[in-house]
Known about the structure:
Distance between the termini: 50 Å
Bound molecules: calcium ion
Number of strands: 36
Amino acid sequence: xxxxxxxxxxxxxxxxxxxxxxxxxxxxxxxxxxxxxxxxxxxxxxxxxxxxxxxxxxxxxxxxxxxxxxxxxxxxxxxxxxxxxxxxxxxxxxxxxxxxxxxxxxxxxxxxxxxxxxxxxxxxxxxxxxxxxxxxxxxxxxxxxxxxxxxxxxxxxxxxxxxxxxxxxxxxxxxxxxxxxxxxxxxxxxxxxxxxxxxxxxxxxxxxxxxxxxxxxxxxxxxxxxxxxxxxxxxxxxxxxxxxxxxxxxxxxxxxxxxxxxxxxxxxxxxxxxxxxxxxxxxxxxxxxxxxxxxxxxxxxxxxxxxxxxxxxxxxxxxxxxxxxxxxxxxxxxxxxxxxxxxxxxxxxxxxxxxxxxxxxxxxxxxxxxxxxxxxxxxxxxxxxxxxxxxxxxxxxxxxxxxxxxxxxxxxxxxxxxxxxxxx
Length: 424
Ligand SMILES: [Ca+2]
Ligand SMILES: [Ca+2]
Ligand SMILES: [Ca+2]
Ligand SMILES: [Ca+2]
């Protein structure tokens, strides 16, 4: 008997079962873990995620499930030798369900909105929204109550054409006409300019990208694209500049090692870096007759290979898949629902926590679309949002109420609508 006790004490904990065996990917549910030799201060993991756990007795723990992604996970109790129950718990995805927040959850529009971006200005992990309204900036802070309140906005000398978030919550703006680009920092109480930047030509938008390890700003102009690092002017430090695009650049994204520029004739794949830029080898991206409204890069299947989605301003939206060798082919007919509205904004987020992205298409003079991804293609689930015809400027997925489920802010020229994810 005495020997048996010593042997048992030398063994690690064991996990026999978790009840119930499944729960929401949101986490936060109390489950019972049964096992043996469970420690007084248990360290429990669901997959890689640490769970809050308290011991009821040596054979029973009460565990709060951590947030996860739909699928089966191992459940582990740490010990001298970990005790693991393989596939011990199954996370189930959320329903795609949304409730529109009342209008007073959002600030009144201060003018016609032409651009909106989301990012974390103060580093508290909750996103703010910065809008360009009649050439001025407007800042919406998360109210902590599931909505936004208008806050102190940086003053600008000249109308702003585009705004982007830099690292550490800094903002970059480029001018709509005559004027200087600005780099702006919120110090917790006031806005300060953070160094003068060399001027450039007027812009109607700007994107922050990481190119060859450097933070690069790509300004969208009526004559093409201009690149600058966050600290310098276009062309400084040997960086490429002024990629001329007939009809102007409407958007730009990074696709693996390539820069894709949105043009009136379709997405244009280029290879860019400190040594210069050049048009990509013929055939890497097929020619297209789509006037690009907006683009997005996402991984439809979760296989680690990037796909390119394009919202077209003059016809059916597009999806391009890669072959893993740097070439892309169009797969729109098999992958996307039919939608020929004027595409103006595009974003993706995993709204149902199944590990696969949903796609949100913002349309101008049309109804926006919500497409659910099933790992191969997208299905139209727009009916889950009470959408109306609008001039959508930006689709901004973000967790407004910090409950782990991504919500959706759709910003249009005259206001915004907030759809709170209420899926369970
Ligand atoms: Ca914040
Ligand atoms: Ca993929
Ligand atoms: Ca999903
Ligand atoms: Ca949420």
